[in-house]
Hints:
Layout: H1 2-7, H2 9-24, H3 26-42, H4 46-60, H5 69-86, H6 102-111, H7 118-171, E1 177-178, E2 182-183, H8 190-210, H9 217-234, H10 237-255, H11 257-269, H12 271-276, H13 278-285, H14 302-313, H15 325-331, H16 334-339, H17 349-377, H18 383-396, H19 408-419, H20 421-424
Antiparallel strand pairs: 1-2
Amino acid sequence: MLQILRLEKNNYFIFLFWIVVGAISSQLAYLVIPVHILIMKKKYNWIWIILGFWFILTLSDSRQGVFRFAQGAKMFVLLAISYLFVTTPKEYGWQKMVTPFIPFLLVAFGSLIGSPQPFYGFQKTFSYLLLLLVIPGLIQMIVRNERDRFLYNLILIGTIILASGVALRFIRPSFVIFGGERFSGILGNPNGLGIYAFLFSVLFTIINHYHKGLFRRVEVWFIYAMIILSLFLCGSRGGIFSTALFFIAWFLFKQNLVLGFVAMTIIFTSYQLVMANFVEIVTYLNIQDFFRLETLETGSGRTVVAEIAWKHIHENYWFSKGFTYSEYILSQYRDYFVASGHQGNIHNSWLTIWFDTGLVGLILFSIGWLTNIFRASMKSPFIWALFFGLLLSISVESWLIASLNPFTIQLIIIITLLSDDNFYRKAGVK
C-alpha cells in the first residue's frame, strides 16, 4: 500500500488540497473543486475523478466543521462529472442501470406537483437520476481501460478513511466520538460508519475474491482488521448484523447456491424468534453494554418516528408528495422527537420511500434495484450474499433513498462491477 501511495502521491495530494481550500472557504471550494475536476478530465484522469467524488461524499457525511464545505460542494461536483460524462463518447450499455428505474423516477418527479418543497425535492430526485445515469457508465469506462489500478485505489481510499478514524480514536478521541459516547470515525455518526464498513466489506471481499493477486496477504488482513475494528468501536447493531449476514451468506453460496438460498431464507424467517430472545442471549453473554440494551426496546427512538410516519403514510397511501416530503413532515415534530430523545429520522428505507412516493413508488423503486441485482446474478451468485445483508441494512436505516451519501455510490459500484464482463477478465487481457 505504501508503494502505491508513493506512486500516486500527486493524486492523493489533490484530495488534501481540496480539504485545505474547503477549510479556508466553503464558497471557494464550490468553485475550485469542480474546476479542478474539469482540468483532471483533460488528462483523462477518470479514476481520480470518480474516487474524488466518493471522497467528497464521505467528507460530506461528517459533522466536523473542517469538512463542512463538502456538504455543499458535492452537488457541484456531481454536476461537473455529469457534464463531462455527457460530453464524452460512450459505448452501448452504459444506461443499463438507470433504465429499470425510469418508471420510479417518473412517479418521483410527478409527485413533486403537490410537494411543499418542490425545488428541494426536485434537486434530490434529479441527483438520484444523475447518480444512476452517470456513475455506472464511468465505472464501466474505467474498468475497461484501467481496471486493476482503479480497484486497488478504490480499496485504498476506503481503507484510509477507516484507518484514519481508528487512529484518531487514540490520537484525538474528541474528533471521532459521537455525543461523547460512541465512535463514528470520519463519518457523521456511528450508524453511518456501520453502513460504510458493511458496504466496504462487501466491496473488498468481492474484489479480493475475483482478483486474488491484487492485494498481498498482509494487506488483506490489515483491511479486514480496519473493518472489524470500525464495526466494533462504533457499536452499530445494523452494521454488525448486516456484515455478519453477508459473510454467512457468502460462505453458504460458495458451497451451493440452492443451499445458500434455503439456509438464508430459514435465517430470515427465524429473525423474529432470535429478536424475541435477543435480550436473554446478550445478557447471558454479558455484552449488554456493547449492544446498548437500554435502547433496544424503542430501537434508539425509531418506533417513535415510525408511529408518526405510518400516520402520514395512510394519508398519502398510493401516491405521495415527492422526495423530502418525509423530512418536511417530521420537522414539524422536532420538539416532540427531542423530548423523546430522538433526532427524527425514519431509519427505514422502505418506509421513507413509501412516505415520499407512495406505495406505487415503493414498488417501482424495489423493481429498479431488484432488476439490477438479478442482472448481476447472471454473472456472479455472490450478489445474493450482498442482497441478504442489504435487506437488513436498509430496514434499519434510510440511506438508500439518498443519492449524495457515501453509501449508495458504493452499492452502485458493487452492482456495476458484478454486471460487467470486463471486471472478470484476466489481468492483461482486453
